[in-house]
Design brief:
- By secondary structure, the chain is mainly β.
- The protein has one helix at about 115-125, and strands at about 1-5, 10-15, 20-25, 30-35, 40-45, 50-55, 60-65, 70, 75-80, 85, 95, 100-105, 105-110, 115.
- The strands form five sheets. A five-stranded antiparallel beta sheet has the order 3-4-5-6-7, with no helix packed on it. Strands 12-13-14 form a three-stranded antiparallel beta sheet, covered by helices on one side.
- Bound molecules: zinc ion.
- Zinc ion binds next to loops.
């Protein structure tokens, strides 16, 4: 994470890859992280029940609601986030890719892993991550 102050005296938070929160006095939060060329954010009411992820489309400037499902480990996942298991060069699992997949004519494409359609289908029914198809 990189925090700077711009020429208008606004705080600028960059390099937010594992998430950060903005919180109201009442405890309502918006969590956000950088993804590809955009920002994804999660609305978290203080009651701790439901939350909802959104993604800003920087080309259309629209906010897209992301469909989220529960991760077996307790976090939230979406069927549109790439479900490829990331590994180090030594083959050690470091978790899910998470890149937002682009959908075109029924094909889901991850910017890093290419066509992940079958991996996403498998994930949707089993909740199991897939291996890098490259
Ligand atoms: Zn991926």
């Amino acid at each position: 994470m990189k925090i700077t102050i711009d020429e208008d005296h606004s705080i600028v938070i960059g390099e937010v890859f594992s998430g950060a929160y903005i919180e109201t006095e009442e405890g309502n939060r918006i969590g956000f992280c950088l993804r590809d060329d955009t920002i994804e954010f999660n609305v978290l009411p203080k009651d701790g029940g439901k939350s909802q992820w959104h993604r800003v489309n920087m080309q259309t400037l629209e906010v897209e609601k992301m469909s989220a499902v529960q991760d077996p480990d307790g976090g939230e996942m979406s069927d549109r986030n790439c479900a490829v298991r990331e590994r180090t060069g030594d083959g050690v699992s470091v978790g899910r890719c998470w890149f937002w997949t682009n959908e075109k004519s029924g094909v889901l494409t991850c910017p890093r892993h290419g066509n992940v359609t079958e991996i996403q289908k498998h994930f949707s029914t089993t909740r199991e991550l897939g291996e890098d198809p490259r």
